[in-house]
Structure prediction request, 924 residues.
Amino acid sequence: MKKAVTKGYVLLILLFLYAPIFVLIAFSFNESKSRANFTGFTFHWYEELFKDNLIMTSLGNTLLIAVLASVFATILGTAAALGIKNMKKRARSVCMNVTYMPVINPEIVMGISMMLLFVFICQMFDWELGMITVLIAHITFCVPYVILNVLPKLRQMDQNTYEAALDLGCTPFSAFFKVVIPEILPGIMSGFLMAFTFSLDDFIITYFTNGSSFQTLPVTIYAMTRKKVNPKINALSTILFLAVLILLIVMNVRQARSEKNKEKQR
Amino acid sequence: MKNKLPAFPYIVWMVAFIVVPLFLVVYFAFTSEEGGFTLDNLVKISQYTPIFVKSINLAIIATLICFVLAYPIAYILSRSTERYQRTMILLVMLPMWMNFLLRTYGWMTLLENEGLINKFLGLLHIGPFQMINTAGAVVLGMVYNYLPFMILPLYSVMAKIDQSMIEAAQDLGCNAVKVIIKVLMPLSLPGIITGVTMVFVPSVSTFVISRMLGGGQNMLIGDLIEQQFIGSTYNPYVGSAMSLILMVIMLVIMGIMSSFDDDEMEGLVI
Amino acid sequence: MKKWVTILTAVLLCFTCLQVSALDVRAEDTVTIKVYNWGEYISDGSDDSMDVIKEFEAQYPGIKVSYTTYATNEELYAKLRSGSASYDVIVPSDYMISRMIAEDMLEPLDFSNIPNFADIDDTFKNPQYDPENEYSVPYTWGTVGIIYNTTMVEGTVDSWEVLWDPQYTGQILMFNNSRDAFGIAEKLLGFSQNTTDVKELEQAAEKLKEQKMVLQAYVMDEIFDKMSNGEAALAPYYAGDFFIMQEDNPDLAFAVPKEGTNLFVDAMVIPKGTEHKKEAETFINFMLEPDIGLANIEFIGYSTPLKTVKSMLDEEVLNDGISYPSQEILDKCESFVNLPDELNRYMDELWVDIRASGSSSVIELIFLFAVILGLGGALIIYLRRRNR
Prediction:
């Protein structure tokens, strides 16, 4: 009895989380534009979706920004974590407080504050807001996630291994790449992935810093939801959902397998 | 490895793109259109008190609902087999990876007068109910979008609680309610605090959810700020003052929250 | 895991390089003009219509168009003023154009690059909002009226009053922009839509606050779906859009209220600071080509100021009394003019106030205080316990 209740509850929550997604998926195959009546099955909207220039460019832009921002943020953040670890307590706490800023501050405040700065600078030099400002903004809110992932790994690391490498004749440079980096790699990787997904998904900060013609996918989607219904949105949702689903399953299976391998080796 | 230098580019970056912009907000908040110092912007905001109150209230309600829904789920998950846990966490995270605009759009389809829920209720001869464009719909949108942010930190804290603690409490004569209050709650406090902040902060400052599900008549602080900058009532000075107040409210709440918690806010990272 | 990440990164990086190089190629020999227009305001190729942007790019291979949309004049104004965005062609309405002229935000046009301007009907030349006709080229015009669903509304609709009718509580939509909303309330109260009397403005605001009780939502382009799907019964909107909605839902009808209404002209202008003025003018001229103008008008349903295009339209359209209203109706119409700066600002404030009103703030305040007290109490108890 108790089991049935818990099972039922879990199912209800999952239903709540997935209901709107399934609705979107179902209606992406709807022949008519209606959001209420299902009139027939079609792939028409998928065709339209791939023909839509704006959506495709926005998708490209989104990926471009996500890749650049997360790579850059990972480098900047990892370096920062190395430095922060060696700071004195006071300096470190100031640094960490600034680092937490983008994480805890409402996104809209981060967005408008950066917009104010970019507008100020751009007007001074007669530049325009666009890809560069979006990239800067994305790097800025991504770096903290990298730092927060790398820092604990650095703390766990045994300082002696690095010194041992030096004693055994490594240059500090190669000791760093041969000893420290492998040790903190999991942290770097998870920081990178986090930065990548956050950048991919960001709407609010992009919305305020994107200027007039550089659109990422979320910005385009937002514009679409404010106009006449366009079942292309549904088709897009379905494709994104499938992409995410496949990615997560693949990652999970690989992880499970590597864990099993490790156990076997023991 | 004793070098602080690698952090230097980062510090420069953060000063340029976080500290300076935030100071710009403060500067604008106290500047009049003519460029002099003024407190008018802050005074002007007082007329928007109802909007501030409403936003905070809706966010509180959404946070409470999230907590009530998420706590049992997190507990159930943390006490089940590892395989089940992994699948479930995946299932909870999966919607988060899809753009929140799309998911909110899905709710529009469900909630409309002629939408699926009302259609379904119509079959049972109930309704139709006006669901979209109400404050309730806005709260629903918040709960829906930020529920995983509550579940995940709660789960990660509870997974670390030793089952024997609970059993010990039961052996010593605690009933279920007492176990929750005396054992589970205190032990999961860091998770609760992280979860509450991660739901409350985006809820109180959202403008997308209220716009999509609130029909333009459920204005929140986020809408108000957005309007002052690139929306329909252009006034970045008042907008900055509003952002400043929002920031202050946030800091106060964070302060209260973190005084519950002894640790640094490491828990913020899922 | 590691291998996978490497592959993934490699693929993504390749993609990035492609993107960047694609950008470069484009930048070399073409110019991109940024057009910022109302939503649903150009023939965009859907439903077998002409894709005007594509046509333009095909005819002028050296010019690319980046096309984005806005929902209200005020939004357009804010975007330009904030400095966060710049555009080469925008399409504001009459009153916004005179405001922009007054604030020196527009570039005078070189009409030798816009020969098709000759085709504009004389009544639309040298308009009130641009007396010397230096800055603007009319794109479309129309009136505002009430769109209603005949299956949901009883009796005849002939007055703005119906938008306040409690019988339709929860089924009425309203403009989500201050000028149009205030215009309706002012007409209903018998004031001018361009009143500069603060008292009259406040009275109109009171009226709009009253209306909130019966409203379902404030909308702009969201209206298309809501009316077509029968989500709402009544809504004021632009006449042209009515035809688009009627195509999806034949039950809809349009009425011009007896109190009179607003006659608007949306015109193409070039904002100050553009770097591609010549190309922007080429675009404006292209929009005045007869076949392009016709495609647009047929797609968006508004009325055209172009003589040739009008002559190409069906009798049916010309005589429906909505697109090209009779003189009798036109006489009752009023056009918006730009209001003094202070009044604009005051109207904005009243508008926010209207939209924020109606929540029972006393109960909400009590609720908030209770929560704060509760939280504070919990904190104190907690701290005491811990100290012990």
